[in-house]
Design a protein that fits this description.
This protein has 162 residues and is of the alpha+beta class. Helix content is 57%, strand content 11%. It has two domains: 97 residues, no CATH class; 54 residues, CRO Repressor. A hairpin with a 2-residue loop joins strand 1 and strand 2. The chain is elongated and about 70 Å long.
């Protein structure tokens, strides 16, 4: 059984732990932005990042694989600060937001499928039609606009005449 003082003594220098958290967060954020919106499901990309990174950060301290709970706490704090900083910067600087935050993209316009977006997101026509049916739409011609939202969901605006 480890001594109490060993359990809270950091295994690595605190600046190194913080830097590791920041670098991993930014690298994963960039990679997930490249993957695309559809893969994130109902959560935003930053939500997924936070859950995964914090789970990994605290796993050593929880499972006893690490001698230090402090490392997990410092790493978690670094990840959360990084997340808040990215959100604050995206709020303040629209150009930065365009890089790190996904935006709604038109999937259907005036009944016509955006095949380019579908290829980019690896969406088949059958998948799009399935999502339309969930909105009570049986034919893309009934759709004025449909957007692939940042959380991966599809929002549908019907034609006034349909």
């Amino acid at each position: 059984m480890p001594e109490l003082s060993e359990m809270f003594a950091p295994d690595a220098p605190l600046p190194e732990t913080v830097l590791r958290g920041v670098v991993i967060y930014l690298a994963l954020l960039a990679m997930m932005r490249v993957v695309g919106q559809r893969e994130s499901g109902g959560l935003g990309l930053t939500d997924v990042l936070i859950v995964v990174l914090i789970a990994e950060a605290v796993s050593g301290g929880l499972g006893g694989d690490s001698d230090s709970v402090t490392d997990g706490i410092v790493l978690t704090a670094a990840i959360l600060v990084c997340s808040v900083a990215v959100d604050a910067a995206a709020y303040r600087f629209p150009r930065f937001a365009a890089v790190v935050k996904a935006s709604p993209r038109p999937l259907i316009r005036d009944g016509r499928l955006n095949r380019r977006l579908m290829r980019r997101e690896f969406m088949t026509t059958e998948e799009v039609l399935s999502q339309l049916r969930l909105h009570g739409v049986h034919d893309p011609a009934q759709v004025r606009l449909a957007y692939l939202e940042p959380n991966g969901m599809i929002s549908v605006l019907r034609r006034a005449d349909g």
